[in-house]
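Backbone-to-sequence.
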């Protein structure tokens, strides 16, 4: 179950989930505890979405999913996961995950989407992090 914080159909959505179990990320590089919040940001015009993990009111990390075909309606948020993810630490370090899982016959359009997403996320992670912090705070104020 999630709580809708912001919903702009065909544009943008922000949802909040309370984790019902512990999540171990990147082989244990990060552990997100049960009870943490995931404030998830989705856009139809970006090749990624961002999960903002918050524990006790403080940011733990940001998890960026590289995606295609994001759909935002009043009934659902859906997207095609392109396998590659980026874990951003609060210090701004970027760890690209799962590139080794991409199939050799991956569609060229998906390769382009992955490259564009990685360029945006990795080139200036602090810009993205500031945006997510600002948008999370605004969404939570409106909740």
């Amino acid at each position: 179950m999630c709580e809708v914080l912001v919903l702009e159909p065909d544009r943008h959505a922000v949802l909040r989930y309370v984790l019902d179990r512990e999540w171990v990320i990147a082989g244990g590089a990060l552990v997100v505890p049960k009870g943490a919040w995931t404030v998830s940001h989705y856009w139809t015009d970006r090749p990624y979405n961002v999960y903002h993990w918050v524990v006790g009111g403080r940011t733990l990390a940001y998890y960026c999913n590289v995606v295609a075909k994001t759909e935002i309606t009043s009934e659902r948020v859906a997207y095609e996961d392109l396998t590659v993810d980026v874990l951003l630490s609060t210090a701004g370090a970027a760890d690209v995950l799962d590139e080794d899982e991409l199939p050799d016959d991956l569609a060229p359009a998906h390769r382009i989407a992955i490259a564009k997403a990685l360029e945006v996320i990795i080139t200036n992670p602090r810009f993205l992090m500031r945006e997510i912090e600002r948008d999370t705070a605004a969404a939570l104020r409106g909740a």
